[in-house]
């Protein structure tokens, strides 16, 4: 199965491997992306881990459902998906809003979460004005209207070359997302502040950021990391907002080392 109704929408998901025999890592995506962004990390992890990926509501092949969304909608979807596949005590690796979903899940459902990998994220991303402006632009002109400015934050100049087919492909992924689902998720981001959840995070965690992230820059993620008890902080060179695409090998190494340390009973720092 790769589609399931959870809460009030049908979600698209993919389970690789058996969570009963291999530790499960769940990957949660950024705004405007679907689960294909994790491919080059997943192919390096399968065999040692089971892997669950999914398209959050309003993205990829998941339904849009009623809009706008709240962060709780996204957190409850992931909780329901984990219950559906019978998984508990999982590693959650989330990028950007996916990292906020991971924080929200660890806070509201600690029974489901063993540890979190928080990539290019924070407790609060952006402000009311910037999200409202983006929602208005998408409502008026579709995702195409904001695509180039988003891609500048997602990727380093070295990646953003017209002759790079990967860059062209991920531009297509972005512009083919549902404009309604995208704007609804911008509203969830605008209204979410997980500062209190981050301060009381009890599961092991690591914060990671690309050194050229134009959306959640290293200084923001470093400040965020300081608010989380006992976390660890890593900067990935040569990556923007989506290190799973630009530096999958390095990201995989960090995730693998962190998961190994957690499983051995250690804590970061
Ligand atoms: O689109 C961006 O600016 C990057 C981003 C912010 C939150 C998210 O999920 O992606």
From TrEMBL:
Domain AB hydrolase-1 residue range list: 23-247
GO cellular component: membrane
Gene Ontology biological process: beta-ketoadipate pathway
Keywords of the record: Hydrolase
Entry coiled-coil feature ranges: none
Molecular functions per Gene Ontology: 3-oxoadipate enol-lactonase activity
SUPFAM superfamilies referenced in this protein's UniProt entry, alphabetically: alpha/beta-Hydrolases (SSF53474)
Listed Pfam families: Abhydrolase_1 (PF00561)
NCBIfam families, sorted: protocat_pcaD
Protein name: 3-oxoadipate enol-lactonase
Organism classification: Bacteria, Pseudomonadati, Pseudomonadota, Alphaproteobacteria, Hyphomicrobiales
């Amino acid at each position: 199965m790769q589609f399931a109704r959870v809460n009030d929408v049908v979600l698209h998901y993919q389970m690789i491997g058996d969570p009963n025999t291999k530790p499960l890592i769940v990957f949660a995506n950024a705004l405007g992306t679907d689960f294909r962004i994790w491919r080059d990390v997943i192919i390096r992890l399968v065999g040692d881990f089971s892997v669950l990926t999914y398209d959050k509501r309003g993205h990829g092949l998941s339904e849009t459902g009623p809009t706008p969304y709240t962060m709780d909608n996204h957190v409850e979807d992931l909780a329901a998906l984990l219950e559906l596949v019978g998984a508990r005590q999982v590693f959650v690796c989330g990028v950007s809003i996916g990292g906020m979903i991971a924080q929200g899940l660890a806070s509201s459902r600690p029974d489901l979460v063993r540890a979190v990998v928080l990539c290019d994220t924070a407790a609060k991303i952006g402000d009311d004005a910037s999200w409202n402006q983006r929602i208005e632009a998408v409502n008026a002109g579709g995702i195409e209207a904001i695509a180039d400015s988003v891609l500048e934050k997602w990727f380093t100049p070295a990646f953003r070359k017209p002759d790079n087919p990967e860059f062209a492909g991920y531009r297509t992924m972005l512009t083919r997302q549902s404009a309604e689902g995208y704007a609804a998720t911008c509203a969830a981001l605008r209204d979410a502040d997980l500062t209190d959840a981050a301060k009381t995070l009890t599961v092991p965690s690591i914060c990671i950021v690309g050194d050229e992230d134009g959306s959640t820059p290293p200084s923001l993620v470093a400040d965020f990391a300081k608010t989380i008890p006992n976390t660890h902080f890593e900067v990935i060179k040569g990556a923007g907002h989506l290190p799973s695409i630009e530096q999958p090998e390095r990201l995989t190494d960090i995730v693998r080392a962190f998961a190994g340390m957690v499983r051995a009973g250690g804590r970061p720092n």
